[in-house]
Write a structure and sequence with these properties.
Layout: E1 18-23, H1 27-43, E2 51-56, H2 62-71, E3 77-85, H3 92-110, E4 114-121, H4 124-129, H5 138-153
Parallel strand pairs: 1-2, 1-3, 3-4
Bound molecules: 5-nitro-6-ribityl-amino-2,4(1H,3H)-pyrimidinedione.
5-nitro-6-ribityl-amino-2,4(1H,3H)-pyrimidinedione binds next to strand 3.
Length: 156
Amino acid sequence: MSESRPIEGEFHASGARFAMVVARWNGEITEKLLEGALRALRRQDVADDDLQVYRVPGAFELPLAARKVAETGRFDAVIVLGAVIRGGTPHFDYVCAETTRGIGEVALATGVPVAFGVLTTDDQEQARARAGPGGDNKGEEAALTALEMVSLLRQL
Ligand code: INI
């Protein structure tokens, strides 16, 4: 084993295809997360032809849709985007727990990287602060994570 150079991903993966699965619940926020993700991928030279958006009703539906999308074999990574806001639901904790666990399982079961861009916040204000037009956008962060993981996996 060489100690000289760590192997890590870059924010570039030529020709890679990305799917974004977006929850419509709290759409005002999730559309901003989508804008952030698209902004980041385009900035890193991902072509529009290599991007596909899917929509689902709520965060709870993200894992199954992500799994089906990953299983098509047409994408190098899946980015899931949602916003679960406490107070919006008495079952906040259940939705958060199931969504998080399910998304993690999809990546392990399919071998396709799934980037987690689901906000879980106490209120709308916290959610808006993480879905901004600048660098403070978790959709953008998730997209860059997906790109980095594709690049890393290509080296393994
Ligand atoms: N889904 C969300 O994505 N965010 C929420 O805040 C939310 N609240 O508040 O309930 C929410 N609920 C819907 C859930 O994800 C499912 O769509 C629904 O339970 C049907 O399966």
